[in-house]
Amino acid sequence: MSSDEKTVLPPTSLSRIPSRLGQTISFDGHLTGHEDLELNGNFSGQIDLALHDVTIQKTAKVKAEVKAKNLLLYGQLEGNVQAERVVINNTGQFTGDILTSKISIQNGAKFKGTIKINKDYRP
Predict the structure, then answer these.
(1) What angle do CA 68, 71, 74 make, to 5 degrees?
(2) 1, 10, 102, 106 from 5: Cα distances, Å
(3) Residues 2-40: pLDDT tens digits?
């Protein structure tokens, strides 16, 4: 293979592929990193991905303090959230407190808690 045939992906294109916690995985602890995260299983603890997206899928059950750039909730989340943008889908269930600059709660979503809007919020 010649050097012209080799293709190297730049780091930015790799960083958009989220890390995943599988549906049959349970994890307790403090999670930090520098990439997006998709949760399908059970998680308990802290998630600190303030500059990245966190997606909690329908099959996920999460009990955590979450810091994210964007939080997309399709499953269950109990805890406190700090994010620039929060979207609770119609299948999402949330209990806790949210600090955000933008929020969307779709019809059918379950929400119990408080929301504090801070237009100048930055992670």
Answers:
(1) 150
(2) 6, 16, 45, 48
(3) 444 444 444 444 457 888 888 988 999 999 999 999 999
